[in-house]
């Protein structure tokens, strides 16, 4: 599905990724974890071609992504911070993205699901953070792409929307899709993910299931397992 | 945002055209006054709008980047959107009052069309330069600063330096140098082109005669337009090149 070889990226003097090798098979939910500044977002943006790597190759569906844009038809991406043009209405934004990527009818179902109907005629600049995140979710899940990338999908969501999001993710997984998630909320990650990838200082420190991580670190629960990786490496 | 401002810009030119025609009561005189305005104002507006639009639509750009669209088409689309709407405002805003005044029956029509053509070139050039500056500077304030400096340099400081060097080296034959110097600055080049077309080159003295000899011929005109086109193409190529390498 996605394979990354020897990925390097530097921002100025700051080496963010130093030799990441990762392959993600088709189907299932993968969580990318790591402390702040460990390169999670950079990794994801490299897959999307928004960040140009210094070294290394990335292939998505056996297509090298370098100087290629068509492979993005097969990716749905939820950005970490929902930055939308503030003078557009929600309706106009949804319509515009539909024009770009092709027809879909999923949007109405999603608008109902997240109860966004009253906001359709409002400008994006006037929405609250959580509502923006819901718009963001709709734009992401509206298309039926085999690969979904979610960067901090839970930020700003209320508990009910969080439950709906989890259901949505599980439903997409049941369709056989591959879902890549980053999150800081460990309970969320533990609940939804099949496999985790732990990034530390620009390298992959651990890749495997949650229970494997628990045995590796000798910790009874997931949160402590993660914490023990961090204290061992920063002590 | 963009469309609202381009209407304002359009209305401004409309007003300017009407006022000038009323005050001058003569087409060719109005053209001369317009030239002075266009030479300074068009580059300034192009620069400011270009930089402003780029920074304002940054979020939108990021949204588009995750979609299956080529980078070059995103940035070229934005550039053309700004540059063409500004050019339209200029052409329509000035063109309408002049047409109603009876432009087609007068012999100022060629002078006037040259004015609009160079104005359009200047818009394309300075918007492209502004996009280049904005692409290379993440910091908005810095970007704005550099853009204004660029305009100030090409519009005013360049002339000063040029004149100074002409005075300092006045003992040497300077015809060629001053020709090349004029070619290198799109604002100077446009001004010279229009002045010579208006047949007031006698005001420029000996250099004017040399210029007349060069720019008056079709060869000179072609070279000048080539230079202007180069000023458009090179910055656009750099936009494409820069956009390919940039991280978001």
Query: Which assembly state applies to the chains in this document?
Result: heterodimer
Biggest protein-protein contact in the assembly: A-B, 24 and 20 residues
Structural domains of chain A: how many: 1
Number of domains of chain B: 1
Low-confidence stretches of chain B: none
Number of helices of chain A: 8
Mean pLDDT of chain B: 83
Return the string of H and E elements of chain A.
EEEHEEEHHHEHEHEEHH
Cα-based radius of gyration of chain A, to the nearest Å: 18 Å
- Into which percent range does the helicity of residues of chain B fall? over 70%
Beta-strand percentage range of chain B: under 5%
* Major sheet size, sense and barrel closure of chain A: 6 strands, mixed
Task: Measure the end-to-end span of chain A.
Answer: 37 Å
Helix content of chain A: 25-40%
Distance between the termini of chain B: 23 Å
Can you walk me through this structure?
The complex is a heterodimer of chains A (235) and B (248). With 235 residues, chain A is of the alpha/beta class. Chain A contains 8 helices and 10 strands. Chain B has 10 helices and no strands. Chain B is mainly α. In chain B, helix 8 (186-197) runs antiparallel to helix 10. The chains are: A alpha/beta (235), B mainly alpha (248). Chains A and B meet through helix 2 of A and helix 3 of B.
In short:
With 235 residues, chain A is of the alpha/beta class. Chain A has helices at 40-48, 90-101, 106-113, 129-141, 159-174, 186-192, 210-217, 222-234, and strands at residues 2-11, 14-24, 28-33, 55-60, 63-64, 75-78, 147-151, 178-182, 195-200, 203-208.
